[in-house]
């Protein structure tokens, strides 16, 4: 049910903001026109803003708020040489907390698909992990 839930939240957010809704509508129409009305993989890849809307929906309405992982090899924590995550150690990643962190996302409680524009993603990429 995760995809149905995500789509419900995305539609809710689109209903709240006519500007975002119009921008998505225009992008979808342009992509379909470019691909002769066929909804293909390439057509979908041209819908960059729609992808941003979905990513922002997943950020605000986190499906898995906590991720559990096992460390596959010894990992010294950058900037903290005294801390080492040992091989085989269980690691808990607070995804929901990262998604609402104002150091990562300005105005973290506001729906803003531009949080996932290519330039903003590039600025964050690798900075926090």
From TrEMBL:
Keyword Cell membrane: no
Cofactor: heme
Membrane-topology annotation of the record: Peripheral membrane protein
Subcellular location: Endoplasmic reticulum membrane; Microsome membrane
Alphabetical UniProt keywords: Endoplasmic reticulum, Heme, Iron, Membrane, Metal-binding, Microsome, Monooxygenase, Oxidoreductase
Main location: endoplasmic reticulum
Domain of life, per lineage: Eukaryota
One term of GO molecular function: oxidoreductase activity, acting on paired donors, with incorporation or reduction of molecular oxygen
Pfam annotation, one family: p450
Keyword Iron: yes
GO cellular component, one term: endoplasmic reticulum membrane
Similarity comment text for this entry: Belongs to the cytochrome P450 family.
Protein name: Cytochrome P450 monooxygenase
Organism: Ceratitis capitata
Gene: cyp6
């Amino acid at each position: 049910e995760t995809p149905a839930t995500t789509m419900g939240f995305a539609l809710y957010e689109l209903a709240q903001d006519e500007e975002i809704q119009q921008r998505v509508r225009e992008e979808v129409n342009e992509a379909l026109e470019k691909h002769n009305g066929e909804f293909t993989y390439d057509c979908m890849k041209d819908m960059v803003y729609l992808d941003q809307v979905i990513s922002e929906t997943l950020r605000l309405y986190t499906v898995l708020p906590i991720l559990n992982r096992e460390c596959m090899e010894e990992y010294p924590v950058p900037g903290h040489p005294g801390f080492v995550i040992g091989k085989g150690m269980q690691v808990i990643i607070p995804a929901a907390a990262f998604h609402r962190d104002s150091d990562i996302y300005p105005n973290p409680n506001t729906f803003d698909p531009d949080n996932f524009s290519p330039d903003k993603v590039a600025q964050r990429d690798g900075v926090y992990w």
